[in-house]
Amino acid sequence: MSIHMHMRAVAESEIRDDHTWLAAFMSEAWGNHPDEYAAGIAESIDKVWDSVNGLYAAAGVLDADADDSWELPIYGGRPVAHGVGADLSHPPLGILEPPGVSRAAGFLARVSFDELWNVAGAKLVWSGCDEAQVRQEFLDCHTGLQGFYGRAAAAGHAVVRAVWA
Question: Among candidates 70, 20, 47, 17, which has minimal Cα distance to 163?
Fold first, then answer.
């Protein structure tokens, strides 16, 4: 089974705070994902996104005085509730508004992947898996998120998230 967290940068003024509308918007964006990914306005992470969040949580271990911006790249923002009469089969959706996108981009720009991996990597390597391969998968996720959030923040965009199963 394939499951992905899909992130799409979009001008906040273009977002309707309506689950049905956002589900249709994100469904269309998912259909265009290869082109939107190439354009730098979309990013997706396969089923390991919660583990990527766990990697970022190590930032609190590295710096006890750090703020909570490590929480923003994966789960930051607010959920968009299903409205009355909405199709409950639509994916879970969330919106991270531009100030949060900027904070997420700042966190990703300043955090050291190597330091995070040194703290949390051992917990992220599944039994029987090649550590170097798993590390590279997480590094690829991190690098993709750095670029995506950096571009979204520079454009002043919000980020909409959907989980596709």
Answer: 47
Q: Check pLDDT > 60 for residue 76.
A: yes
On whether the CB atoms of residues 46 and 106 are closer than 8 A, the answer is: no
pLDDT tens readout for residues 9-28: 999 999 998 888 999 999 99
User: Could you give the CA distance from residue 165 to residue 152 in angstroms, rounded to a whole number?
Assistant: 25
98-110 vs 131-155: helix axis angle to the nearest 10? 140
Q: What is the rounded CA–CA span in Å between residue 107 and residue 112?
A: 10
Name the DSSP letter for residue 23.
H
State the pTM of this model: 0.93
Record the tokens describing residue 90, joined without a space: 């639509």
Contact 28, 89 (CB under 8 A): no
Kindly list the strands in the beta sheet with 93-96, ordered across the sheet, starting from the edge strand earlier in the chain: 42-45, 4-10, 158-164, 93-96, 78-79
Do 74 and 53 meet the contact criterion of CB atoms below 8 Å apart? Answer: yes
Phi-psi region of 93 (alpha: psi -120 to 50; beta: other; left: phi over 0): beta
What does the pLDDT look like over 149-164, one tens digit per residue? Answer: 999 999 999 999 999 9
How far is Cα of residue 5 from the mean position of the Cα atoms in its chain? 7
